[in-house]
Fold:
Amino acid sequence: MRELVRTGRYVMTIHALDAMEDDELTVFDVERCFLTGRIVERQRDRARREWKYLVEGWLTDGSRAAVIAKVTRTHRHMVCDICGKRGARIRRVTRSFGKGKATFLIEAVPVVSCPKCGEGYLTADTLREVERIRQKRRRLTKGRLVPVATFGSLA
Structure:
């Protein structure tokens, strides 16, 4: 796992990215946890015949954390890293990052999307670029008015 992190040969699902943001972690925190941590538990996913690993390690601020990882064997391009089937495509999406007053949008984020399993994920390079943009967002973002609607407001 450390070698995959060091060489940037990993992906993160949108679900994992959302959970990471909820826990106020950065991709650099997660990478450091893998690089400094140790596997404390293995969990078998019987449906997919894969292993998940609970890794405890250190974050960039020196605190301890635990993260979960799954290692798959697919290394071919445009094969879904989650389900292993062909047909994954790169889509450019606009995505929000942050919370509350710190929320901002990044346009044209490349997301790998699989039509077979429905999963979307970001590559290590994309995650690192998003983190660099997040760190310099005040300089890189432009103020725009964005219309907002509330779901169910027509009822």
Remarks:
- The beta strands are 11-13, 38-45, 50-58, 64-70, 89-97, 104-113, 120-123.
